[in-house]
Input
Amino acid sequence: MLDLDRLRALHAIAEYGSVSAAAEVLGITTSAVSQQIAKLERETSCRLLERSGRGVRLTDVALLLAGHAERILSLVAEAEADLEAKRGSVVGKLKIASFATASRGLMPQMLRRVAQEHSQLTVELHERDPKAALPQVLRGEFDLAVVHDWRGSPLSFPAGLEKLHLMDDPAEIALPSTHPLAGREALSLTELADEEWVGAPPTDICHAWLCHTLRSHGMEPCIVHFSQEYSTQLALVAEGHGIAVLPRLGRGPLPPGVAAVPVRPRLERHLYLVWRCESRHRPAVQAVVRALQEAVDTVGDTRKVHLRPGSVTV
Output
């Protein structure tokens, strides 16, 4: 009989391309992964890994078995979720991925509620970019993820995931407080045609959205500085090195020298909570969904969306 841990090791190597990467994902040593593969080779009487330069590659037999392993492990996860739902106990450990401002603006409240209401459930938070988090949830590295996209730059949600629209988060324009437009009650994007911008790196979804949005208004983006963190962007804005788009979620107090002005029509991003389809009935997952929806209710000027878990499927 094929051992699940050994199949899991083979699947991780197939997914991540190396023994060391598989070991990191599985949380074990490279030696332990190699031992699992050696035992699996003895079980199957087949060679599964071959040397390729400094690394390894899967044999044809290994690729065939890895495909079966993916389906087997998915079925096991579904069975475990069904058993957990049958027991109805909110226990165990969940790993949740979240982008930075949601980690700051929503997760502390969610974690507090879970700790108060479900003392036997542990939630482990990891900050991840939305594009990275989605495949990691699909592979089972995380149980849930909070992700976002912008109108004009939608995320692609893989099959096998369910999503819940949590809220819409408005954004304003961060300007140096000495800027001529800093005192306005609202402004239009076209008034910023000649401005230099501080923005996210080119690999970030926010960068693609900003370029798309400005070009849709007939403006060619002039992004002169790049930073992942809004705090760094604001520090650059405060010193007069450009302007930036600033979402309200998780913002905190503005630093001296920065003014935030709303845009008309309103700019906003969309926040979603995602999980694997087979996890929809897990009491622990449902508990975190409820706690996160309650956390959304505590934030200020947002457009909240209240849906039942699983009501939106992709």
Q: What stands out?
A: Confidence is low (pLDDT under 50) at residues 303-314. The chain has two domains: 4-86, 90-314.
